[in-house]
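Following up on my earlier thread - several people asked me to post the actual chain instead of describing it. Fair enough. Here it is, all 194 residues.
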Amino acid sequence: MNPNPGLSIGSGEALLINPDLTVEYLDGRYVVRFNDAYTPCIRISPVYRSILSQSNQHSRKVRAFVRQKLKHAQLLVGNIEQRRQTILKVMAYIVETQQDFLEKSVEYLKPMTMEEVGNAIGVDGSTVSRAQQGQYVQTPGGILSMRSFFTRTMDTHNGPDVSTAAVKKRLEDLIGAEVSHKLLSDEKLTVVPK
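Reply from S.P.:
Thanks for posting it. Predicted structure:
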């Protein structure tokens, strides 16, 4: 009588997702910020700068080596900060565009491509793709991957285009509400009005 039979074939560790960003509704508007509590702080040790300033204690070769490595470290820190700013811009644009989704439900998720976001914030779509990869955001509706905000468009023939996520949610709701003796046919599911 094992209350956790799955532990015999797998580990008991549950993977937790720590969101990289948080979207909160404050003072009448949505605010996007980083969750720095989960992000390690990267800084350059002052020891290396002191080596450069103490010219009489270290050889020219050592100082040249440290100067080169210090320059690389500064470049790395700068690139990390630039990536953080890109992620923040991407999420800010998403929040601005997807307010109905944040306030209501997935049925209000508007179709959005990475190229569209890239054009809006002044970067290439591939930069947006790299920036959102593996990023999670805490929204009022729960933790979502940034990837989930990018959906394809489906033509409705008689109204505005909708996202594939909204269509999937609508189909899920319809199938979930079916009565076992009166199932909807595929044809009826394709033309059901909202």
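The mean pLDDT is 83. That should answer part of your original question.
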